Amino acid sequence: MATAKLSCLPTSCIPAKGHRNSSNYRIRIKCAGIADPSGIPAPMGQKTEYKDGWFEKAFMSLFARKMEKFASGGESKKGFWDWDYESFVDVSKRVMIGRNRQQQQEVVREVLLSMLPPGAPAQFRKLFPPTKWAEEFNASLTVPFFHWLVGPSEVIEVEVNGEKQRSGVRITKCRYLENSGCVGMCVNMCKIPTQDFFTNEFGLPLTMNPNFEDMSCEMIYGQVPPPFEEDPASKQSCYATFCSMAKPSSDVCHKLKI
To answer: What InterPro entries is this protein classified in (predicted)?
Structure first.
């Protein structure tokens, strides 16, 4: 039995290639999480308080510093460990200023590519061709490694091409959407560029289905995302009470129209 343990929660069970019983291989990552002892995100309309550790802060800083190069207002004087989640979200908002939907998505693509060593996408395609095992493996990795960005999540069973498999991830209440309160930021700065990056750069199809009623989200590895015009998220209206950039009179978020 092969067991790998890293220091960070929630626990993610990752199936090992060649093992019929996925419980034979586990990676445990314990991350700092929600401050409330219950570990449950706050109800809709209230902001969840998180207790971030060095693992989360490192990712916040890495992404924020890369994104800040594209943000309006120039680069700040923040040190590496001075970034927190609020300042990370603020950088995302500043990236949106003066850019249309496609340009915002392109910035995220450039930032993601800049985080990887040369040739990484090609290597990923070799290591993780679009098979059931690769899809389930990446779903398992998502739970601990995306925790800093989206909050608590769990691997779930989904149907892909008529076959049931555990390549889905259900995000309880997305931290990015909760903190930004912005539908356009969710779709343009997270959903679409993440889908496109996995599907087109890594060759592993991914569809993300945010639920704007409760801020949860479902990620399905192995499912090809629909064209933007056919995606229900493209027709979502603004959060009139949460978003400072909202236009309540519009039936669709104005950030999704341009």
So the answer is: D27-like (IPR038938), D27-like_C (IPR025114)
